[in-house]
Amino acid sequence: MRKVINLAASALLVTGLVPSIAEAQWPERPVNIVVPSGAGGGTDQTGRMLAEHLQERFGQPFNVINQGQGGGVVGISSIKNAAPDGYTLGILYNFAHYAPMGQAEIDAADFTPLAQFNFDPAGFQVREDSPWEDIHQALEAIKQSPGDYVIACGGGCGGSWPMAVATMMDSYGVDVSKVRFVSGKGAAAALQDLAAGGVDVVPSSLPEAAPLIQAGRIKALVVMGEDRLETFPEVPTLNEATDMDLQLGAWRGLVAPKGLPDDIAERLENAMQEIVHDDQWRQQMTDRGFGIQWRNAEAFSDFIADEQSSVRKLIDTIGLVKND
Amino acid sequence: MDALALLLTPTTLGVMLACALYGLVIGAIPGFSAAMAVALMVPVSYFLDPVPALAGVVTLCAMGIFSGDIPGALLRIPGTPASAAYVDESYRMTQQGQAGLALGTGLICSSLGGIFGSIVLIFAAPSLGNLALQFSSIEYFWLACLGLTAAIAVSHGSPAKGLVSLSLGLLIAMVGLDPVSGQPRFTFGTEYLSGGLGFIPVLIGLFALSEVFRFALSPGNGKPPSVGKLHGLFRGVLTEVKRMGFQILQGCGIGTLIGAIPGAGADIASYIAYASTKKQSRHPEKFGTGIVDGVASASAANNASIGGALVPATVFGIPGDSLTAVIIGVLYMKGLNPGPTVFLTQGELITAVFLAFLMANILIVPFGYLAIRVFRHILAVPRTILMPLIVAACIIGSFAVENTVFAVMTMLCAGILGFFMEENGFPLAPAILGVVLAPVVEDNFLNTLVKSNGDLLIFFSRPIALGLAIITIAIWLVPPLIALLRRSASKVRST
Amino acid sequence: MKFDDSINGLLIICLGGAVIFLAQQLPTLQFIDYGPGFMPTLIGILLVICGLSVLAKRIALNEGKVSTWLRIDSDQSLSRALLPIGFVIIAILFYIFTVNVLGFLITMPVTLFSLLFYFNRRPGRDIAIAVIGSVAFHSFFYQLMSVQLPWGLLTPFAGVLTW
User: Fold this and answer.
1) Structural domains present in chain A
2) Which of A62, A209, A222, C49 is a good FRET partner for A243, with 20 to 30 A between their CA atoms?
3) Closest CB to A30 among C102, C110, C159
4) Nearest alpha carbon to residue A120 among A47, A42, A53
5) Distance to chain B for C58, nearest Cα, Å
6) If we measure between CA atoms, which residue out of A251, A252, A254 comes closest to residue A33?
7) Do C27 and A322 touch (CB under 8 A)?
8) Strand residues in A177-305 grouped as ranges (E)
9) Which residues does residue A126 pair with via DSSP β-bridges, in sequence order?
10) In angstroms, what separates the C-alpha of B257 from chain A's closest C-alpha?
């Protein structure tokens, strides 16, 4: 046993020395991409497509590591805590609620943003037999009696979809602290509950809602993006239906831990720019129902900082638990 | 017919063959699990064409769920949570020299259940899919309560200790971020615990590692039980299967229905099938002592449930359990976006996948037979070599599903807990049921109350919910009432 | 490692009590009087009731007479019999605490060999099994199924060793 401890101690010494000689030319060994989602989920799929294209450009394997425990808390924390040596990257998505909800200390400043590549505008889905014909009627009704309606969060309340719909209602003048939000096990389960009559509204991306829309069980009243979606030309944007100019939904971007050397960051950003403008990758994303949005490192960095402050304010307003 | 042509290509058949072997081997190795096998398929399937990828994944599910029975019967370590309900039963049979009968019956029933499930899937998918849309949080709550009653049936011995085991399972599932409010619960301020205790590491610890500890307690006198006459693997089986025809059919039905209800998968199906067979049996006291009846209907049910779970998965993209959640991911990844229209727009592809599933379930018999023949030699390996290797498999098996070293720690603690429980007469099977059902019971209870603003009457407000409520409450209250009446009646007579 | 049921009962009651206590610290939800503490409280109560029942049964069975508080199914003394269990636990803890530093390809063979040697006592064969087993696990999980087993010390060679 003593031998083992000695070995461990000397190992600690050696690992301290190794990286300095190893950083000759990044990447000279496989790179890990931490995906804070289970295998097969949406974030996982985008991560794998990205990994495939990064691998092509850098000539080293880019391995996807799935860590979806605790609604992404575990995965996002491990991106934050990794060494900023360019060998651990991660996919970041709407993260701003973890800290104000007391789930994990995660801040926009913990990361080196590299590029945003995806944005899926939130839809506003109701049952097919709902009396609401458009988003205006819906918002008006909710504004009249906010305590009468139940909105499903999809996953935990605080994630991308409930925040999108709450932001929209908030700017319409609805008292969001009176609206009841219920958590669930992902958008698919929430949409099923909608069809079964358990909730009144489910915000989610339109591709996620597509099966039940096709089945004639639910309808989408609005899509909170800049333009209508090609696949759902009949669903108006928020800007068309009301005059709120908001783009709300789920986004995904590539990040590294804080302190990534500039030259590596620059190479990754350039590679991401090529990938996002690569027709093959765009086709792959579109086929699987993911929206594409490009923001370079600087714009992405500003974007997540803004998003963080607005979400934190909103979480306090909604108040999921009694604070006494 | 075009669907069949898509299926019968060398690539597809080759991938199915590879996946069948992979599923059988992984399922049969203690410490690995079917859920891990399927999750690990995702990166591989990324590089395959749609039909081979999906045919491979469904084959893998079918084989993996069956193959979990093998280490259960031979080493008392269930390979999948779905085998946990009857692991005591089949291991007792092995100890009595009836391993051939236990495994043979399990094999035939798994295949029958799988075939039943796939036929329902092929012919009734769209209409059965509508069942899923009747279930809101109220119905789920009652269904989960019904599932909890199965804990009593699988705890042989003291009911109080069975309930303790169930509570410990429920408690394990409480750790982490509360799904309803997002509040950290029992995490004691550590980020590690925020992700909760992984289900697969807990399962591996409770069953596999605890078995290693039992071996370590007395390395010398752990004589492995003899397997018995394995060459007659099918001989006694057919008469047994004929005798239990009705129960097996019932197992198939229970499995398919429970599978088709999103959120309740193979695990719950096999527990409920076991409980219901025990309830109807003329000699329920023999359950838990090594009786083939318990194995038959439950192994039919867990394989049938995969077919059932594929119904809401393909029709609405709603996952039935953890396995189908991955399958849906692969469906999307391959551009076969689930939905009612997938049967129209890509009917051939989806039919090919269903046929592959049917074929896999038929192939369970020959493949499973080979697997049993190979893996029974596991008993011939000296335990002093086997057990260290099982420890290694447990470590890797927990790491591979969670991708965190903390998962190994979870597995170790669950192993110590499982060892203490076993030694002190607390059955393990109810604990697994507790881990599976705790989130279902809790989320649906709280979310339903949020919807009704705290009015408890909502739990009786919908027809299906009312029906499930009456069944559940009857099962809870009627037997003790009858016992009470009998006792007072005999008291009256004696005075 | 069998405890007398009176100890088991007391342990369960204590656990139940602790759970109930901790559950009271959790807040309730915004719109209803239930919350994250509700279900744990129920579980705690169930544990206390079951613990009492285990204890009561034990007392009723032989009126509180205790032969042994703790016994094991082994012909050895208690401390000797518990040694191998302790060894398995230490081996796994060794893996947990060194795998990220040393890497899987060093930690796993060491862990596996120490376990094999402890139980099997045939150094040559044990080394062979430990090394071949670890490499086989690594090839299958890392190379084929792309599970990211840590490289640790061997990190600089990760590029060369990946095929």
Assistant:
1) 29-119+249-315 (3.40.190.150), 120-248 (3.40.190.10)
2) A209
3) C159
4) A42
5) 12
6) A254
7) yes
8) 180-182, 202-205, 218-223, 249-257, 292-295
9) A219
10) 17
B46: nearest CA partner in chain C = C145
Structure tokens at B280: 């109807």
Rg of chain B over all Cα atoms, to the nearest angstrom: 22
Q: Do A201 and A152 touch, CB atoms closer than 8 A?
A: yes
Chain A CB within 8 Å of residue B452 CB: no
Inform me whether the C-beta atom of residue C143 falls under 8 Å from chain A C-beta atoms: no
Q: For chain B, what is the domain count?
A: 1
Between B and C, how many residue pairs show a Cβ–Cβ distance under 8 A?
168
Helices (H) and strands (E) in chain C, counts: 6, 2
B495 within some domain: no
A99 reaches B (C-beta below 8 A): no
Alpha-carbon distance of B39 to B17, in angstroms, equals: 18
Enclosing domain of residue B379: 2-489
pLDDT tens for chain B, residues 1 to 495: 678 888 889 999 999 999 999 999 998 888 888 888 888 888 888 888 889 999 999 999 999 999 999 999 988 899 888 888 899 899 988 888 888 888 999 999 999 999 999 999 988 877 777 777 888 889 889 988 888 888 877 777 788 899 999 999 999 999 998 888 888 899 887 878 888 898 889 999 999 999 999 888 877 655 565 555 555 566 678 888 888 889 999 999 999 988 888 767 888 899 999 998 988 888 888 888 888 888 999 999 999 999 998 988 888 877 777 788 788 888 887 877 787 777 777 888 888 999 999 999 999 999 999 998 888 887 788 889 999 999 999 999 999 988 999 999 999 999 999 999 988 989 998 998 898 888 888 988 998 998 888 888 999 988 889 998 998 888 788 877 887 888 788 777 665
Q: Which residue of B has its CA nearest to C87?
A: B216
CB-based contact, C38 to chain B, within 8 Å: yes
Peptide bond preceding B338 in cis form (omega within 30 of 0): no
